[in-house]
Design a protein that fits this description.
Layout: E1 3-10, E2 16-22, E3 31-36, E4 41-48, E5 53-59, E6 64-70, E7 77-84, E8 91-99, H1 105-143, H2 153-166, H3 174-177, H4 181-198, H5 203-225, H6 244-262, H7 279-282, H8 285-304, H9 332-342, H10 352-356, H11 367-389, H12 394-416, H13 434-457, H14 465-475, H15 492-514
Helix pairs in contact: 1-2, 4-6, 4-11, 5-6, 6-11, 8-11, 11-13, 12-13, 14-15
């Protein structure tokens, strides 16, 4: 799976060297692929089909014979003929397809159509059920004796169901359905603390609740998410200290403190000020000041902190990237700080390892990135303030979400110069760079607006996100959520397994919703 076979046929009288690099690898050094002996010899290599590759054939005297870039198909067999050109006396490289590759888009198409059919059934089934219910009520009224009336049990039950279906939920269900955890933590903090403020909960009680929830999240992440029973006895030698829930817990703690000390303010409903259009920002200026100071700290450390044997302000992956000049500089200042603090107790297989051939450990949930995680959560707090300030005015809420999305999207475009690897601050998920926060904040506002429309305005359900996340982390490796793959040549079984596990967790969440069971921390 995700591989193809490439065979080189050398019809020349000199030995050839073949090198390659991934087009997704920024300024990467060419890596040796195969050596092809002369005089009608051949050599084969298995290549990755995940990314487009640039291949280069060189003479033994380091002279490039030919170079080309191509996206190879999964399961395909390809031949490259190195021979003298018939039209000229110069050698050339000719590519041929010996075996057609698999259609990698077909499993996705079938999966999308299956999901569309399921969604259609969910939409049509309630309509059919209501039609049957209505017909039953009509038969009860029209076909029974005069002693039966509209107040009969059958009609009464139908009416109760109809009214229940139209009842508006008081809880913001979009918060339970939304999957951008960091962003939605900030939104939930604002709304939850607002509710507790109205109930008269004291500041000391809030601080106790904040501390307890933070400790629970940290322990869940430290003891469960980083450990599976299949790993054997728990050992400090391989235990990972940073983690997803650890970052969420610390982010929640900081955001909650901001809301506890500088966020519990009454909204001046009828006050007329020039800053009314931005009152959801101006009233909380101390919070904004703290976030600006934190971002200034991140910028100073990231761009100005000296790192041994690395250029100041380095934001690359190291390894073979950047022409191989900084192989041990993975993550720049962020990676250096994490390796100094945690040693080997951090993530050993970052996503950059496969492409950039890095040797240094790097944790995407490290210390420095947590600062921008707090900034991301603070954007979510802004969404919560919008919901409070414009409660009941759904159109204004959605418009404010759109305005924030546009502002953040433009900011991300400026910082990255609309490029993948360039700009003032490139979009980097592993580093949680400032441009990444702006970009994901933009899409988070758009996604929350969509979820708000679907779940709160239209009334669809969705809850127990933490339960599903922790449950899948613990049980996702076991049957019935997964099994040993028998067909490794394509994505069919992988896709089916992923859809099956997702469907099971959706069913579990739905059953818990029907039973009114909601996991709270």
């Amino acid at each position: 799976m995700d591989q193809a076979l490439l065979t080189f046929h050398n019809q020349l009288t000199e030995e050839m060297q073949v090198f390659y690099t991934s087009d997704s690898c920024y300024k990467c050094v060419y890596q040796h692929l195969v050596t092809v002996k002369p005089n009608n010899n051949n050599a084969s290599a298995v290549i990755s089909t995940k990314f487009p590759l640039t291949l280069q054939v060189e003479w033994t005297r380091n002279v490039t014979l030919c170079s080309w870039s191509q996206t190879y198909g999964e399961g395909g067999h390809y031949s490259v003929w190195i021979q003298m050109s018939e039209a000229a006396s110069n050698p050339s490289c000719t590519t041929a397809v010996d075996k057609r590759p698999n259609n990698v888009h077909l499993p996705l198409l079938v999966g999308a159509l299956s999901l569309a059919v399921v969604a259609l059934l969910f939409v049509v089934a309630p309509y059919i059920y209501r039609r049957r219910c209505t017909s039953k009520c009509i038969r009860t009224i029209c076909c029974q004796g005069p002693e039966y009336s509209v107040d009969n049990d059958g009609a009464q039950a139908c009416e109760v169901e109809h009214n229940t279906a139209k009842a508006k939920p008081t809880r913001l269900r979009s918060l339970d359905t939304f999957r951008g955890f960091v962003f939605i933590i900030g939104t939930s903090v604002v709304l939850a603390f607002r509710s507790m403020q109205r109930r008269g909960v004291s500041r000391q009680q809030l601080l106790r609740k904040i501390t307890w929830r933070t400790v629970v999240l940290l322990m869940l992440g430290f003891c469960f998410i980083n450990y599976s029973p299949r790993d054997g006895p728990l050992s400090w030698s391989w235990l990972r200290i940073p983690g997803v829930l650890q970052r969420l817990g610390f982010t929640y703690f900081v955001l909650s403190l901001l809301q506890t000390f500088w966020g519990l303010k009454e909204i001046p409903l009828r006050a007329n000020h020039w800053w009314n259009p931005v009152q959801d920002v101006v009233l909380y200026w101390p919070q904004w000041l703290i976030i600006i100071l934190l971002e200034t700290l991140w910028l100073c450390i990231t761009l100005l902190m000296p790192v041994p044997n690395c250029p100041t302000g380095y934001l690359g992956a190291g390894g073979i990237g950047d022409n191989g000049l900084y192989p041990n500089c993975t993550g720049g200042a962020a990676g250096y700080i994490d390796r100094w603090m945690f040693g080997d107790n951090m993530f050993r297989y970052p996503t950059c390892k496969e492409i950039y051939h890095t040797t240094q450990p790097f944790d995407p949930e490290g210390v420095l990135g947590t600062i921008n995680s707090i900034a991301m959560g603070f954007l979510g707090m802004q969404a919560g303030k919008i919901i409070i300030f414009y409660r009941g005015a759904n159109v204004r809420i959605l418009c404010r979400f759109l305005v924030w999305a546009v502002i953040l999207g433009i900011s991300a475009a400026i910082l990255s110069k609309c490029t993948r690897d360039g700009g003032f601050i490139p979009v980097n998920k592993n580093l949680w760079s400032l441009s990444y926060v702006m970009c994901t904040g933009c899409f988070s506002f758009l996604l929350l607006g969509g979820m708000y429309f679907v779940t709160d305005i239209k009334g669809w359900w969705g809850m127990n996100s933490i339960f599903v996340y922790v449950g899948h982390s613990l049980l996702g490796f076991y049957f019935p959520f997964s099994w040993e793959m028998r067909f490794q040549e394509s994505h069919w079984e992988w896709l089916f397994q992923s859809l099956w596990a997702t469907a099971l967790w959706v069913l579990i969440a739905y059953l818990l919703y029907r039973k009114k069971f909601f996991l709270k921390i």
